[in-house]
Amino acid sequence: MELIIAETVKYILTALMILYSFQSFLVFRHKEEEETRAICRGQTVVMVLIQFLSFMVLYLEERDIQIIVYYLVSQTTILAVIIFYSIVYRNSSRLLVNNMCLLLTISFIMLTRLSYYRAIRQVLVAIASLIITSTIPYILMKFSDIRRYYYFFAIFGIVMFLLVLFFSVAVNGSKLNVNIFGVTFQPSEFVKLTFVISMAGFLAKSHKLKDVVITGLIALAHVMLLVLAKDLGSALIFFVVYIVLIYVATGRFNYVLAGSAAGLMAAIAGYKLFSHVRVRVAAFTDPFGTIDNAGYQIAQSLFAIGTGGFFGMGIGQGAPKKIPVVVSDFIFSAIAEEMGVIFAICIILVCLSCFIMFMNISIKFKDSFYKLVGVGIAVIYIFQVFLTIGGVTKFIPLTGVTLPLISYGGNSIMVTLIMFAIIQGLYVNRKKS
Amino acid sequence: MRFINIFKKESPAETERRRSNRSIAYVAAFFSVLFFVLIAYIVEYTYYEAPEDINNTYNPRQDIYAKRVVRGCIFSRDGDILAKTDTDDQGNEKREYPYGPLFAHVVGFSTHGKTGVESSANIRLLTSNKFVTERMVNILEGEKNKGDCVITTLDLDMQKAAYEALGSYRGAIVATDIKSGEILCMVSKPDFDPNYIADNWEAINSDPNSSVLLNRATQGLYPPGSTFKIVTMLEYLKEHGEEIDSYSFDCNGSFSYEDNKISCYHGISHGKVDITASFAKSCNSSFANISTSLTREDFRKTCEDLLFNEDLPLPFTYKKSYVPINKDSDTSELMQVSIGQGKTQITPIHMNMITCAIANEGTLMRPYVIDRIVNADGKQVKKFRVKEYGKLLDEKYCTILRELMTKVVEEGTASRLKDTVGYKAAGKTGSAEYSSNKVMSHAWFTGYAPLEDPQVAVTVIAEEAGSGGEIAVPMARKVFDAWAKEK
Known about the structure:
- The complex is a heterodimer of chains A (433) and B (487).
- With 433 residues, chain A is mainly α.
- Chain A contains 17 helices and two strands.
- In chain A, strands 1-2 form a two-stranded antiparallel sheet.
- The relative contact order of chain A is 0.13.
- The mean pLDDT of chain A is 90.
């Protein structure tokens, strides 16, 4: 019986998700505020249905009352966020609020399926972050001169990375975390933000060759420290964001070419110097030939995606727990396995919709500081999505970064929510002014 | 508007903003394109590559499929059922193999671990490609769907002929279609009945010497003996091709060189032999003599071109063949290798592939067993295409080698293949010594038919059976006969 329900629901979920992602692009076509609002209200209904049906299946399979409690808490949280933004920040982007909530919803569903304990932690961190970040649009309105502290932010980032390098213990070969009073703190997540603000502050003031060189050195310091900590995924993100910001600030494509050339040489050097880079590349080129060691993770991920197929095995019907680190780096594969490749592709489209909205908002700013902050956040977000999804599907070598808002992890979720809130804040304030 | 713009000068800040926005638009476009490529890749992967990738023993999801789908059937090329699943009234499933031990290794079993086609097509057999609505109705009614079926390239009559020909000997027989690479029959002995594999598991595994489960055709490594003279001859043709007509050797039953001695089979003296007679009569002394004129590096290169010491293009488990020759090999090793003795080892399937390449102007087709997948109603789901692997040797050498192999039947050790009805065959025998006890040998034969436009290649090895000409050639003849009858 459970199999029949899971089987039926998976087709309905796929249809709902297609509808939602279609709506999330439809919004861009309508200029009228009223039409946009109507589409977004439709999205909210779809989102609630997705959450309800998924948790229904989860409950019928597990028959555990805790799942109903969890559903009620998470559903209330999502609805509260939507209502809060529509009342308190009337001018906020409804599309972004919806997309953010949908991605969180998918995270709650998949984590409940994979690990109930982690699902609880995730929803608690999300609630706390949502409460804290709800004040960001207001704070931005009051304190508009954070741009002046760009030197402070640059130094802050570098100091943080030095602390990680000296005081953290390597996990899976990479140094990422610092423990403070029992709370695991992952500085690279937060430094992404301070780095963007610092770069935007520099470049908004002036972007002559001298400034390009200074910001370049700061960026280089960040990237090198991340490489030393063996966090190559984050290093790549910082590098790409820097190139994009320079390009947007100066409009010179030559910087992109020079940066790409430098990046390519660094990649080759990295391949020659670090054995763990070579291992990753070997796993990428032949995961099934190296399945006993390096290729194991990616092969398991491909098994999950391939076995699920376009419509998935149905929630609770697959074997996603066989994938290593499935709750964080490989959650996309688990979603593809149980909810289907079509559903998973719709998630990609929703992420892309967020990115285009971020860029849209950035374009409309007159103030180049805000413009650069918007672009920086947009690129951090979308490039991270690209690295993780491209990695687990073997489109590119695996870099070990999380899928924003969906992967388990308090630091990641908090920083991503701050980013969304900053963009909302910029959007709200621009509309007001 | 445009009119006004000409006169109203744009402020520098505005120019810069427009430039920035253009950059932002480009960045947005770049990432959008990147993501559409990613999505296209994922769709392509899921549709084309995933069905192959997930059929891997490391994929732990195969049991999940079994809960939903009744394992499909395996058929011979003519539609004989080689494996099927019956469900009784209580819903218990039983996998049945109607021909018992006949296809034990090549079709394999799925009831106690998985082997053979049962393993390599596992996910296919557990996937239902019946019409979507029918599948949905079944799921809603709580019925299992019927899995897809595999149609193999195997020929029932040739399999039977090979199985009976090998008799009670240990060993293997394999026959392939030269033009396509289809495996027509594959027998390995000792065998077992896959219907009772679970019950007899302990008995089968308790005897460490028998290795009943091993598919000797693909995983059995044997010294090639005189069949390896095909390779030695190829190297001789490459290095001394212009001298073959003038070659002459006086065989007195053995050949000595730098303290190394090679003897002919059972010490027979072949007298004065030319190149054709050396090959047809399989004169060890003459080949040892030839070997002393060969360059070691080039010899190794030729062996590697024929896929010794290399991976074979096979879609199932196999062992790599081995030739020890390299630039530092001493004369003793070189002489041993030239007659297929010493540390040289080959699998029957590899010997068959080399024979196919020689008979097919040097081009090897990739051997395969699974021809196509159909759903439970017989509608085609996927057809596996014939794939060329590449050229193993030059055409001009094939012509000469084929002439030599023809003489082996007409005037040499494979005379028991003379007077065949409806076809003429060619090939090479071998009697490989496998231990210091020189009395017994493994009997080899590898060959093809017909002479003009070859269609089928047959390779036989019978362990501890005696000479290739006496034992292996009659076995191969039975398989050729079965093939000719169907032609």
